[in-house]
Amino acid sequence: MKKTILIAMATLTLLAGATAVSSQTRIRFARGARHATVTGTLTSYKQERVYLIHVAAGQKMTVEDVGNHAVSIYIEGPRGSDYVQDLAADCHGHTDIDSTSAGDYKITVQECQKVDRWRGTFKFKVTVR
After folding, report:
1. What's the whole-model pTM score?
2. What is the DSSP letter of 90?
3. Could you give the CA distance from residue 33 to residue 66 in angstroms, rounded to a whole number?
């Protein structure tokens, strides 16, 4: 019985990990473009959407909420970078990174928990120069 439970738990752990990886969406720019507008939906107050964007070292990146609903946008730098997002007291709907490290930045979007709950579509813009 213990062996069956351990196998079931291991299987669930592997499936949960696979789901987490597959739920990330890669942001790609159109050829020659410097920005992309990303649209998504949130159906619950604590739901998150996760995006990845690959940038070169030394670029300037701006991420900003441009939709009709307040979202919090959290950014994590690539593995090994020293980037730490400056989290102000607001909803974190705008972030400027003056000099990026090379690699994938992880952008997590969720409803701003400092305003009334909502469900629906969000929109944010990523600019890289």
Report:
1. 0.79
2. S
3. 18
